[in-house]
Amino acid sequence: METVLMVGTRKGLWLGRSDEERRDWEFTGPHFDMEEVYSCLVDKRGDRPRLLAGTSSPWLGPQVRRSEDLGATWTETPGGAIRFPEGADATVERVWQLVAGAEPGVVYAGTEPGAVWRSADGGETFALEQALWDHPHRPQWDAGFGGQAFHTVLPHPADPRSVTAALSTGGVYQTADGGASWEPRNQGVRAEFLPEGEQYPEFGQCVHKVTRHPSRPERLYLQNHGGVYRSDDHGGSWQSIADGLPAQFGFPIVVHPHDPDTVYVFPINGGDRRYPPDARARVWRSRDAGESWQELGDGLPDGFWVAVMRDAMCTDDHARAGIYFGARNGAVWGSADEGETWRLLVADLPDVMVVRAAAL
């Protein structure tokens, strides 16, 4: 069995290949040299795996690239695959999210500015989720420091009419009717940057990432701008699970591929000090849905003065799951034993924005 690892950076895409042991890796790249790559997908549906990458050129704009041969060759859609319809008065700047839907051939994308898109042809063309774009809350979604973007899209694994999406400075939104309507799902998530007494609004939270496990889709985990949360009612309400962590700020949150009670985060300091507490690179794992946390650092460095971004941590789907993260110093670390021990897989890449892995 083979393992593939996609590493998207601000200056191109790197592809890593290894065997089931995941000790020795070979990387190729850069693919799409000097283009930003904020989103990747290893789509294992169909007869053979398809790789997708959301790229952005400063000259040609954004594009969704596709490969049917694990990156040996790439195809793009004339016009870029994702473009706003006439009259929208908006231009896609980046593709922040690519994720497989519940139905064959369906792929969702999240973009900057904040919009969600649906493809029915495997990512070759996309249609705007118009009701979300026209939502009355949208004029109040601020840009934030990282830009205004739908960075999380979570199609329900069994109900194709249900999709959960999250954007920075807007919060979590959900449709239960195939995109005809969308409602905010932020009850209990604190917006610490708002004045006292106004910190639990209907929307406007700075959500950094949301994840869930396909076997228990009603449970969601959320990393907020200051706070880590769990929902057991499909986002209807949220409770804090941050007790025991060294910091409540962070960007990624990742659920174990085979266990909905196991979740991973990478805490960093808030404010201007965007690096881990005491500058020690550590992944924190909970095996009881956030009731308690364990520090994982065997093989990880100290003197680590950079952050791990919202999509720059992931798992593969081996029986014994691998965990991966890439940092803003261009280093990618991996664990083949669910976080117990870590190895440096590749170093000195550009600023890492996204990692995605799969067993093939």
UniProtKB/TrEMBL annotation:
CDD domains: Sialidase_non-viral. This is Photosystem II stability/assembly factor-like uncharacterized protein. Transmembrane segments: none annotated. GO terms for biological process: xyloglucan metabolic process. Gene3D superfamilies: YVTN repeat-like/Quinoprotein amine dehydrogenase (2.130.10.10). InterPro entries: WD40/YVTN_repeat-like_dom_sf, Xyloglucanase_GH74. It comes from Nocardioides panaciterrulae. SUPFAM superfamilies: Oligoxyloglucan reducing end-specific cellobiohydrolase.
